[in-house]
Protein: TRAP transporter substrate-binding protein
Amino acid sequence: MAAFSTKRWLTRAAVAPLAGVLLLATGCSDGADSADDNGDFGGQVTLTFGHPFPPTDPIQVNVWEPWVDEIREATDGTVEIEIHAGGALAPAPQVYENVVAGAQDIGWTMPGYTPGRFPITQVIEAPFAFSNAVEGTEVGWELWEEFEEFQAEYDDVEVLSLWAMDTGDLFTRDQPVETMEDLAGLTIRSPAPLQGQALEAMGASAVNLSGPEIYDAVERGVIDGYKLANSATRVFDLGDTTGYRTVCNCYTGAFVLAINPQSWDRLSPAQQEVITEHTGPDLALRLAGEHDAMAADVADNYWPEHGVESVELSEAEFERWQDAVAPVYDQWASEQEEAGVPGTEMVDRIRARDGAG
Structure:
């Protein structure tokens, strides 16, 4: 972890990193401001933490629940975090704005759920660029630390962490996709705008849907398939709706964890220090590792149990897919340049890595 600098995250002047925790007015005591330089934690604080994913999601069970315990213990019990899963506080597309508005304290969500809101973050979703979550997370933090324009997308929250999920493949219900021509006439769920454009470039019709919406859309025939992180097929229990998986490393989605600035400010300095020590790039790689482990287990167990067949693209066919979406990525870079963002430099940085398309 020494390769990552944390000098910018969780500082408003430098534009705090992603996703955050917002203190509800009813959950904070005036004592939260009473911590002194000797490390006293001050008064009791309760933070609400909402996300749109199921409470059985391994990320909640294996990371968030232990993380809540770690924060409680490290603050001598003065910081309590209440997890509200499954969109209990806000549906997927509204989690981030719910944090901004102060309706919840902490939010875990995907920037791609709000099309157009986080155009720079899409760089992490580069088509065919990363082989796993850890690699995408490492690159994401490198770009975050270097480009203030990236950080500026989140200037209305305090970012606690930013990471990538395991790679997403193409899943279909009835028809295997072995060539680009097989996508013609199919309606495919896209996780984010850049991926929707990539699907359109390859001949499919793209529909932007959040993860929790996929099952119903496939079952009712609204969509013929979906792009999704491999681990998430089990999170949303999509095995019975899915016949085929085309292995393509089509994208790596981004996640953020953020806290409302006013909520952050009401924490004592000692409480802030504890949360800082338990988030940032260290937490990001912990989360990415969990995503990769989930993906491996799904491949070994979940898909075989549900009869999902894997389709391997030939090298020549995979190159066709890469060539088809290259203009989409170039257009993204051009649009960022027009907005004063060094998009070309970001794209070149990712393409220079081994395995990038």
